Amino acid sequence: MPTATEALQCPQTGAPFERATIDRRDPGPNDIEIEIKHCGICHSDIHQVRGDWGAGIFPMVPGHEIVGVVAAVGGEVEGFAAGDRVGVGCFVDSCGECEHCENGEEQFCVKGVVSTYNARDYDGETTYGGYSTRIVVKDHFVVHIPDGMELDVAAPLLCAGITTYSPLKRWGAGEGKRVAIVGMGGLGHVAVQIAKAMGAEVTVLSHSMSKEEDGRRFGADAYYATADKETFKALRGSFDLILNTVSANLPIDRYLSTLNVGGAMVNVGAPAEPDTFRAFSLLGGRRILAGSIVGGLPETQEMLDFCAEHGVEPQIERITVDEVDGAYDRVADSSVRYRC
Ligand code: NAP
Ligand code: ZN
């Protein structure tokens, strides 16, 4: 017997949210039932609700920055008990058998990773995300929130944290590396802190100077406005690594020109329209243009522990369920500081 659960749903593309009741399955032997305490609003929620990435599955209950407390565990669950503080990120199932799942990179599952919402699970049931009061998730897809980290502050790390930690680590952000973070929103403000904690020299490239003071507080060594054309001249050949977290299309060639020989620009932003670039922007400096998508479960736990150890903390605004529509508009115009 599924359990009726309160949720906030978007009935159709771009429509306002409404309160609704959804069904959650009863916990099976490997499941964990979580009482949700908070959920972050990621720009990806907005892209999906507004149809930026193509048709979604409606009604949609978004939310993949979920934190809460374990209410019950199935008979075969180990390592979790009622009362534990836990999190759930961008996916809730994968085949568990392919080479990528075996490597702990479930995001690349050959059968297809099951997203936390706007997806069908392997039984064909629609998945519903964290804008709700409880969720039932396979134990493998649940992580522990470290002691001493507030649950609401931890929530954004379940997506913004892992999405930036994973490429920063993979591409060697660290001592002696000059790293630029493009866009200082939900992902970007966490990326600045993580890159700094990894030991890199960090520059923020934001469209204006309005958030400079915050950027420096997050650990940036330098801060530039990309609206100023002089910025790109001044920074020519400067960076070993650029992490692009911007939700809109950018003039990629200009950013590539700021990479040193052999430098890499890694995109995690997922704008609605295709990006374009000139091959010569890469050839001239043997440069690399790459992408990255969230991160696997072992790395998500590693990232949470890293953030706890290094004091990486999302700056959040707490809102109620009745304020979500307004919050979406504020995310879209970049006025949220820095995650709702
Ligand atoms: P966000 O909070 O809205 O931040 C995006 C930032 O991009 C803004 O704060 C702004 O920074 C900059 N920006 C926005 N519009 C711009 C424009 N027209 N021109 C230039 N800069 C602009 O969004 P988010 O939650 O961090 O997500 C960012 C992107 O990453 C989204 O596309 C999201 O879907 C994607 N994402 C991808 C993954 C993945 O796994 N790859 C995971 C999560 C999210 P400044 O004011 O500093 O310029
Ligand atoms: Zn996200």
SSE order and pairing:
Elements: E1 3-9, E2 18-24, E3 31-39, H1 43-49, E4 66-73, E5 85-88, E6 91-93, H2 99-102, E7 114-115, E8 134-138, E9 143-144, H3 151-154, H4 160-170, E10 178-182, H5 186-197, E11 201-206, H6 212-217, E12 222-225, H7 229-234, E13 239-244, H8 252-256, E14 259-267, H9 279-283, E15 288-291, H10 297-310, H11 324-332
Parallel strand pairs: 10-11, 10-13, 11-12, 13-14, 14-15
Antiparallel strand pairs: 1-2, 3-4, 3-8, 4-5, 5-9, 6-7
The structure holds NADP nicotinamide-adenine-dinucleotide phosphate and zinc ion.
Q: Can you describe this structure?
A:
The protein is built from eleven helices and 15 strands. It has 340 residues and is α/β, with parallel strands linked by helices. The strands form four sheets. Strands 12-11-10-13-14-15 form a six-stranded parallel β-sheet. A five-stranded antiparallel β-sheet has the order 8-3-4-5-9. Strands 1-2 form a two-stranded antiparallel sheet. The mean pLDDT is 98. It binds NADP nicotinamide-adenine-dinucleotide phosphate and zinc ion. Zinc ion binds at residues 42, 44, 64, 159. NADP nicotinamide-adenine-dinucleotide phosphate binds at residues 42-44, 47, 159, 163, 183-188, 206-207, 245-248, 268-271, 292-294, 331, 334.
